[in-house]
Amino acid sequence: MAISQEALDIMHSPGIYFWDEKLMSTAQQEQRDMLHDINALKASDPRRERLLRSFFAEMGEDVWIEPTFSANWGLSTHWGSHTYANFNLTLVDDGEIFIGDHTMIGPNVTLVTTGHPVRPDLRERVAQFSEPIHIGRNVWIGANVTVLPGVTIGDNSVIGACSLVTRDIPADSVAFGSPCRVARPINEHDNEFYWRGRRIPEGL
Questions:
Q1: Which of 61, 89, 97, 126 is placed for a possible disulfide with 19 were both Cys, Cβ 3.0 to 4.6 Å?
Q2: Distance of CA 65 to the CA centre of its chain
Q3: What per-residue confidence (pLDDT) applies to 21?
Q4: CA 176, 137, 197: angle at the middle one, nearest 5?
Q5: Catalytic annotation on 116?
Q6: Mean of the pLDDT values across residues 106-110?
Q7: Is the distance from CB of 77 to CB of 91 less than 8 angstroms?
Q8: CATH numeric code, 5-191
């Protein structure tokens, strides 16, 4: 890992910090170059998984990320096992992102850990803040969802397509909207029907 522990500690700590060219820019370019190499490979190329495991902070078993995807760093993102991400995933991962086992992420999803102060003079000085995103086990995030800094999504929850997730979503919930809100808990109805009154076949 080219970036120093000092730089990671700055990005992963709470509160405002300032971009440090000496600490961060060279290391980020190395990560960008690795990302370019990953996206240039065929999905079936065995080198792709090896590069992904070097690129990310952590990557469990049976992880599949469709090409192409984007990330600020990669080395702040932790993947659980048996996870899947569809096309055009974007990771703004100056802060840490934790993705639980068996989680599925739809196309064009953006996970944003980092923002900038509203105060103009601080933005001119390249001030920013990063808060971690925690996505639980067996979560389904629909297409075109954006998750903002500091959000936790609980185990088993479903986030509907095109949602803007600004606040925590509890476990075992169906949530959607902009801003995203809990619509209902996952319940007995879901044991019988998979979509719009269509029954789950017996034996499944």
A1: 126
A2: 11
A3: 77
A4: 45
A5: yes
A6: 98
A7: yes
A8: 2.160.10.10
